[in-house]
Design a protein that fits this description.
The complex is a heterodimer of chains A (about 260) and B (about 325).
Chain A: H1 4-10, H2 23-40, H3 42-62, H4 72-102, H5 105-109, H6 116-146, H7 154-176, H8 181-198, H9 210-217, H10 220-231, H11 240-260
Chain B: H1 2-17, H2 19-22, E1 26-35, E2 38-48, E3 53-57, H3 64-71, E4 79-84, H4 93-96, E5 100-103, H5 115-123, H6 132-138, H7 154-166, E6 172-176, H8 184-199, E7 203-208, H9 211-217, E8 220-225, E9 228-233, H10 235-239, E10 246-250, H11 257-261, E11 266-273, E12 276-281, H12 286-299, E13 306-310, H13 314-322
Parallel strand pairs in B: 3-7, 3-8, 5-6, 6-7
Antiparallel strand pairs in B: 1-2, 1-4, 8-9, 10-12, 10-13, 11-12
Classes of the chains: A mainly alpha (about 260), B alpha/beta (about 325).
Chain lengths: ~260, ~325
C-alpha cells in the first residue's frame, strides 16, 4: 500500500540544499561585474582617464601655469593625480552607486548571499585597479613626454594616495547613499569642478584671491593635493598641516557615509 | 475496513508529528509594522506550509509588500514575530539568504549589463548554481543576446528577474507581483514555470493584483486589507458554493427590488445594472431563497435568462470584503 509518507520520501528527491559560495568567490564574481560596468560606461572612462590626461597634457604643454619654483611637470603631476583619484572615488564611484541604488540594484543584492562587506570590498578593489591604471597612464606620460623624474618620498606618496582614496570614495558613497541619483550626479560633478579650480592642483593657491585661498586651504581637495605635492617634491618639508586636515576630513566623511548610507 | 482506516489516520498523525512536515515554511505571528506612526500591518498572522503556493492578495497599500519584505529580511517587525524556514530573517540572514529566491517589485537589474552577465554574476554567489544558459532559455531569454538590461521590455526584465530568483536553487520563493508588465503569453509561460517549481517541492509565496493568477496558482489565498487578514482559504472555498451568500440573475429590467428584498432570507436586493440583479443572503438559507425567488418570478410571469450562486469571482469577493477595487 502506498502511503502519503512513501510518496513524499520516494517520489522526487528533495532539491540539493542551496549554499552560498565562499566569500572570496562571491567577491570575485562581484569584482568582475564591477570592472565590466566601469569599462562599459563611456562617461566613466572620460572623467577618470581621458579628462586627467587632457588636463595634464594641456597645462604641461602650454606652460601658462604660474609656478614659482621648480618645473611645471613637477608641480602639475601631483595635482592631476589628485584630481584623477577624486574622479575615481567621488565622481565615478559616487554616481554609479547612486544609480545602482536608484534602480534597486543595491536592494536586490541585499536578498542574495553576497554580504554587504563583500559588495564594498569588490567596489574598493575595482576603484583601486582603476587608480593603478590612472597612475600608470599619468606617470607614464609625465616620464615619456615631459622629462619627469621620481623625486621625494614614494612611501609618503602612497600613504597620501590611500588617504585621498578613502576620503573621496567615502564622499562619493555618502552622497550616493543619501541623496537622489540626479542630485548626486550634479553635486559630484559640481564639486569636481570646484576642486579643479580651487584645489591647488592646477592653479597654485597663492595665486587665488586671499580669502578664497584661505577657505580652499581647509577643503579636502587642497589638503590632498598639497600633501601629494610635498610627497613628490625633493626636499619639501613634511606636509603636517595638510595631512592632518586630510585625515580629519577622512574621519568626518567616513562617519557621515556610514551613518547616512541607505541601501534602498 | 476499520483497521485500514485506523492505519491511515495513524500515519497521518505520524506525518504531522514529524518535525520536517510539521514545521511550516513561513510563520507570521501577530506581526505589526508602522511607518511614521501609521500602522501598515496590524497583528497579521498566517503560516505557509512547505511545498505550498500561497498568495497574498490585497489592494495597493494593504501591507503585502511590507509583509513580504519583512520575511525577506529587509525590515524588522515592530511587534509580533516572523520565522522563515525556522530562521529569523534579520538575525539569521546569512543562513537564510542562500535558501530563498526573491523577485522584488522593482527588478533591480544592472541597466548596463547583458542578461547573461547578470545571471553569471548572481550564479557566482552560490555554491551550486543552475546552469545559466538553460535557465535563461527556460524563462524565454536568449542567452546570446547583446541587448543590455536597460533596453529589455518590461516583461523581459520581469522574466530575467525570475531567472535570478531561481539561480541558487531556492527552497522558498518570494514573488512580489511576478507577472506585472508581462504580455498574456509570457504570463501563461510564467504560470507554467511556477507550477513546475511547485511540483519540484519549492514553496512559493506570491503577491498579486490578478485574481485569475491567485485562483489558478495558489493552494491558498490570504486576502489582506489595511494590514489585516480578512480571509484565508483555498480559492475554491473562497469563491465556491460551499458558503454561497450571493445570488445573481438576469431578467427584464425594472423589477421591484423592495419586493425582492422582502423575500424570506434575503438581506439585500439590488439591480446592479439594468436587468442584472444581486441578492445577498445568509448562506444556510440559500436553497429556500432560490425556491422563493423562482416562485416569485413565476407568479409574475417573468423568465430569467441566467442564474448564478456563489461568492462570484474572487474579484467580487474581494470587492465585497475590502470595499475597494483592485488596481494594478
Amino acid at each position: 500500500m502506498t502511503t502519503l509518507a512513501d510518496t513524499s520520501r520516494s517520489g522526487r528527491g528533495r532539491p540539493q540544499p542551496s549554499q552560498a559560495a565562499p566569500f572570496l568567490r562571491q567577491v570575485g564574481a562581484q569584482l568582475k561585474a564591477e570592472l565590466l560596468l566601469t569599462s562599459r560606461r563611456g562617461e566613466n572612462i572620460l572623467v577618470t582617464l581621458i579628462l586627467p590626461v587632457i588636463l595634464l597634457v594641456f597645462f604641461a604643454s602650454l606652460k601658462i601655469i604660474p609656478v614659482s619654483t621648480g618645473s611645471v611637470i613637477n608641480f602639475l603631476l601631483p595635482g592631476i593625480l589628485a584630481l584623477a583619484i577624486m574622479a575615481s572615488g567621488m565622481v565615478h564611484l559616487g554616481i554609479s552607486t547612486a544609480y545602482e541604488r536608484y534602480y534597486g540594484v543595491l536592494k536586490r543584492l541585499g536578498a542574495t548571499p553576497l554580504p554587504r562587506s563583500g559588495l564594498i570590498v569588490a567596489k574598493i578593489v575595482a576603484v583601486l585597479l582603476l587608480e593603478v591604471l590612472q597612475v600608470v597612464l599619468l606617470v607614464g606620460i609625465a616620464l615619456l613626454f615631459y622629462g619627469w623624474r621620481p623625486v621625494g618620498s614614494p612611501g609618503l606618496a602612497i600613504l597620501v594616495l590611500a588617504l585621498g582614496t578613502i576620503t573621496f570614495a567615502a564622499l562619493g558613497l555618502a552622497m550616493a547613499g543619501s541623496l537622489r541619483a540626479e542630485t548626486t550626479l550634479a553635486v559630484a560633478n559640481g564639486l569636481y569642478l570646484l576642486f579643479l579650480l580651487i584645489g591647488g592642483g592646477i592653479l597654485p593657491l597663492d595665486h587665488l584671491p586671499a580669502p578664497l585661498a584661505a577657505l580652499a586651504q581647509y577643503l579636502p581637495a587642497a589638503a590632498f593635493t598639497q600633501s601629494l605635492q610635498a610627497a613628490l617634491t625633493a626636499g619639501a618639508p613634511f606636509p603636517g598641516t595638510a595631512l592632518l586636515t586630510l585625515l580629519i576630513w577622512m574621519i568626518l566623511i567616513l562617519g557621515v557615509a556610514i551613518r547616512a548610507f541607505r541601501w534602498e | 475496513m476499520m483497521s485500514a482506516h485506523a492505519q491511515t489516520t495513524g500515519q497521518m498523525a505520524d506525518l504531522a508529528a514529524s518535525p520536517e512536515r510539521a514545521e511550516a515554511a513561513i510563520v507570521v505571528d501577530r506581526f505589526c509594522k508602522s511607518y511614521n506612526g501609521r500602522r501598515v500591518v496590524d497583528e497579521l498572522s498566517f503560516s505557509v506550509r512547505r511545498g505550498e503556493v500561497f498568495a497574498l492578495l490585497g489592494p495597493n497599500g494593504a501591507g503585502k509588500t511590507t509583509t513580504v519584505e519583512t520575511l525577506e529580511g529587509y525590515r524588522r517587525p515592530d511587534g509580533g514575530s516572523v520565522r522563515v524556514l525556522g530562521l529569523d530573517p534579520v538575525r539569521d540572514a546569512a543562513r537564510l539568504k542562500p535558501l530563498i529566491g526573491v523577485m522584488l517589485q522593482q527588478d533591480g537589474l544592472y541597466p548596463m549589463l547583458r542578461p547573461r552577465e547578470v545571471a553569471r554574476l548572481f550564479a557566482g554567489y552560490y555554491q551550486r548554481p543552475q546552469p545559466i544558459d538553460q535557465l535563461l532559455e527556460r524563462v524565454g531569454i536568449d542567452p546570446g543576446t547583446k541587448t543590455i538590461c536597460r533596453r529589455l521590455s518590461g516583461g523581459q526584465k520581469r522574466r530575467l528577474a525570475l531567472a535570478l530568483a531561481l539561480v541558487g536553487n531556492p527552497q522558498l520563493l518570494f514573488l512580489d507581483e511576478p507577472t506585472a508588465g508581462m504580455d498574456p503569453q509570457a504570463r501563461l509561460a510564467t504560470w507554467e514555470m511556477i507550477r513546475d517549481l511547485k511540483a519540484q517541492g519549492v514553496t512559493i509565496l506570491l503577491t498579486t493584483h490578478l485574481m485569475d493568477e491567485a485562483e489558478r496558482l495558489a493552494d491558498r489565498v490570504a486576502i489582506i486589507d489595511h494590514g489585516r487578514l480578512i480571509a484565508l482559504d483555498t480559492p475554491d472555498r473562497l469563491t465556491g458554493v460551499d458558503n454561497a451568500t450571493v445570488v445573481r440573475f438576469v431578467a427584464p429590467a425594472g423589477l421591484d427590488c423592495h419586493a425582492l428584498a422582502a423575500l424570506p432570507g434575503v438581506q439585500r436586493a439590488e439591480e446592479v445594472r439594468p436587468g442584472s440583479y444581486l441578492l445577498e443572503t445568509a448562506s444556510q438559507s440559500m436553497p429556500a431563497v432560490l425556491a422563493d425567488l423562482t416562485a416569485w418570478l413565476r407568479d409574475r410571469g417573468i423568465t430569467l435568462t441566467e442564474l448564478r450562486v456563489g461568492h462570484g469571482s474572487l474579484e467580487e469577493l474581494f470587492l465585497r470584503l475590502t470595499g475597494s477595487e483592485i488596481r494594478e
